[in-house]
Structure formats: structure tokens, C-alpha cells
Amino acid sequence: METRASGRLPSHKESVEICPQGLLVFTGTSEQDSNLAKQFWIAASMYPTNESQLVLSRGSSQRLPVAQPSRRSPPETTDITAETIKIQASEEKKKYLQKAKRRDEILQLLRKQREERISKELVSLPYKPKAKVHKAKKVTSESDKEHQEEVKALD
């Protein structure tokens, strides 16, 4: 059997022997070439991983237990989500009702305060000084003056 050892074909003097245990024996090669070839074949061989070589004792298991299939059917899940949505909607409705009630209370308080202010103003109105109303002088035309004089003359 011929094979490549360290990148070259073995010469007629060199040969590769396989021992009965499955080990490779390189005969007729230099020590360095045989060491490199051994390293290559050791690295190239596909040994099973350590995990796969473990032997299980009775009653022990390496795998985690598998989750049991759920007994709930998809319609139940839909019922749960529908129920959750209903609960959220009712909570939101309560929140808006509370806000509306608070708004009504605030408006009622503002109306009460306005009525109190108006009643106080009415009580103090007779005691307030009269505001002077500045009358603007009317500019009358001559025809209006004549008209006024005629009216006075008739009296």
C-alpha cells in the first residue's frame, strides 16, 4: 500500500505498513518525515468525540427531559387571548370613566366658583364708584341744526 508521507510518494525503499491494531508504521523514512506523517494521520483521523464515547449506566440519562405536549388545544389559547383582550378593554373603559368623572367634577367646581364670584360682584355693585362715560361730541351738519331749530319752534 502506497500513500503520501510528508508531501511526497514513498520511494521503493520506503513503505507504509499497517499493523494488525490499525496503527500506521513508516519504515525506511527519516525520523522527521515519520513524525510529520504520524501527526498528519492522527489529526486527519475521525475519532468519535468524547461525549459520544461515554457509556450510560442504567437509570441515568445525558439528555434533558423532553417537554410534554401541552394538553391545551389552540381554541383554548384563543379563548385566553380573547379573555385577556376583554379584561384590558374593561380596564381601559374604567380608566376613561374615571377621567370623565374627574372632568365633570372640575367643571362643576368651576361653575360654582363663577356663581360665587358673580354674587359677590352683585353685592358690591351699589358701592362701586360709577364709571364716567365720556360722550363723544356729535358733529351735526347744518341741515340737522335747521331741523332741530324747527322742532324747537314747534314746541
Automatic annotation (TrEMBL):
Coiled-coil segments: none
This chain is encoded by the gene named CUNH11orf88
Kindly provide the name given to this protein in its UniProt entry. Answer: Cilia- and flagella-associated protein HOATZ
Bias type Basic residues, positions: 129-138
Composition bias, Basic and acidic residues: 139-155
Family according to the record:
Belongs to the HOATZ family.
Q: Name one GO biological process term.
A: cilium assembly
User: Which residue stretches belong to region Disordered?
Assistant: 58-79, 129-155
Q: Which InterPro entries match?
A: HOATZ-like
> What is the native source organism of this protein?
Callorhinus ursinus
